[in-house]
Amino acid sequence: MRLTRPSFSKSLFYAIAVVFVAIGGLWIAGGMATFTWIEVSEMIPLNKVVDTQAGQDLHTNVYFIRQNFQIQAVTLNATPEISGFALALLGLGVALFSFLPVWQAVLGATLWLGIVAFTLSDASFPALSQIISGQLFSLSLVALAGLSVLSAAAIPSFLIGLSHGSNVASSKKNRSILGLVWGINLLLTFSNQRFDLGVRTAIPAFIWMILAVGLYVYQNKDNKALLGISLLGLSSLIPLLWHANTPGIQAIESWNLINQVVMGLLFPLFIYRNFGPLLAQNLPIHKVIHKAALLPLHLIQIGVLILSVGAVFAFNSGAYHQGMAAKENYAGDVSVFVGDTQMAEIHYKNATLHSRLNTKSNLSLAALAQQAGDTETFAYYVAASQSINRDPALSVALANVFATENRPFDALFTLQKSDSADPRIATQLALQYERLAIPDSAVYFYDRAFSLEPENPLYIANKLYAESTYLKRKPEFNPSEDLAIQANLVAAGIPTAPMNPSFVPSADLRDLVYLYNGMMFWKGKAPLYDLAGWQRSLGEMFPELELLKSWQSFYHAKPLVALNQLNVSIAADTTQGSGMTGILAFWKYATAYPVKTPPISRANALAMLEKYPFQIPVLQQAIPLVPAKKGYEAALAALQWNEQNPAFYPIYATQALKMGEINYADEAMEKLRTLNSALYQASQASYLAEKQRALQKTKF
């Protein structure tokens, strides 16, 4: 049984066309980056006056958000390897079934798998997958190399058909023009690729390869064997392009250009030898090129293969070593997918033996080192990758390593060598100047980053921070909804839109600092939030939520709750104890400072005790209107927080007697006698009368 249905050839051809489109898209996209930019937010404290009550100022920290960048290795995506593997199996199957009966092809494949599994010392699935995928990828590269030789004549044969005119003169003129354009462009591209000529208008080498192979596949769209080989060869390009396996791409480009240049030299002789008489009669020879009787095209292709191999070795085997480096890089990627990082490192290092400075190997090794926490190795491979292609992301990665290792000037010089027109680099330069305590330069580069990309919220927020911190001026209001901008505006004392009652912070420092600054600024006008609930999930990341719980209670008319919470926090030392001690003293002073209070009635007595717990008139008027237990608790709390104020002792003593706590009442009056004997004498009569009533109650 063989693949004989014509419809299958069409389906296969269309599948290859889709693969060509995917390959073109991957080439234009440039592949996935090994490292990605990560935005990092930091809290920068600024001590300022956040409240004024009773002639006293409350100084505490607000926080600015300062943002910069870190570079993080991207997790490899197995999709291109899986897709390439599936296409390679399909192409190999089509090619084999075109030459052999199905049973023979299946038997051969089964025997091959059995030999591979038998020879493995570790016959686990990861080991088996690494071997099989590696061998199939190598076969794909060989198929692509062969396809490059076979397709070397596709472009000139297409141009001959395109140049065919209505008469001999017209055809000759067209052939001369098209041949000259083709030859010059091919030589320019080859010179760029091989000798770094630097001609920007030359056609990219990869386009020459795609054009040649694409035309060849189209010219042989009914040949199932060639279609299978084409699919097998093209399958290797998907993982190469997706993961930016530069040695493989360069090897393919170099090999293909050598083939096309050699064919460009031999093809005119082939045409003249076989089709000279037909050319004189202006016959369409492009239709019979593959049927030449005197000197078959296959002989020319064999000659191209021999000469191209010689050219590769004449050029120090560059294409061969790049191809081997690509194969090792592919094997390293597969090892990463199956979790074998040790084997992945071996493969990537083997790739550097074939192509020492290839970017793919060095970046992959840097990614493995970063994941393992090996900073020195990470920096070594990042620096090695920078020697060929200076990437802003890698400059930042290297500068961050220098900064971490306390080498600030090395970090600064590394960034200065990068692209200063990139706002991300300008941001990192500003950060580095801050670390070197050069604020003028820091402000300049924060402003430069903003000017390069004025709509980006990150650079706007940094500009607000720099203006407030270093220039000591209020920045302009910005209506952006970005929370970093909102947080920095509030920290600078610029009112923003009131906080939304439905706001729920995520595990993002920008959200949490906005919440902190917003509650500091809006105080009692801020909504009541579930801070205790948020603290359970975000408390470790943002311990300042402990202070915010007390802050919210105080400015929502629950000063006693706030003082108790804050006192517990100070005892536990969960955040900045000294700063919270100052807040505690301010709140206690503000709560006890005499203020004008609304009239007290039985309906509002409890609320008045909660809002004005240290106001003597409130205690005297409201306690008789509430249950005895509530009155006792209010008097006790007021006394505990104001032990040096004699006025609270008679109030507490009276409430203690009402609760039957005669001993506590006596202790309170004795303490009052030592603090203020005049007040003690003035309160003695009413106290003794209340005590007598309390004693009478105990008799029952």
Automatic annotation (TrEMBL):
TPR repeats: 423-456
Protein name stated in the entry: Tetratricopeptide repeat protein
Keyword Coiled coil assigned: no
Residue ranges that the Swiss-Prot or TrEMBL entry lists as coiled coil: none
DNA damage found in the keyword field: no
Source organism, top-level taxon: Bacteria
First and last residue of the signal peptide: none
PROSITE patterns assigned: TPR
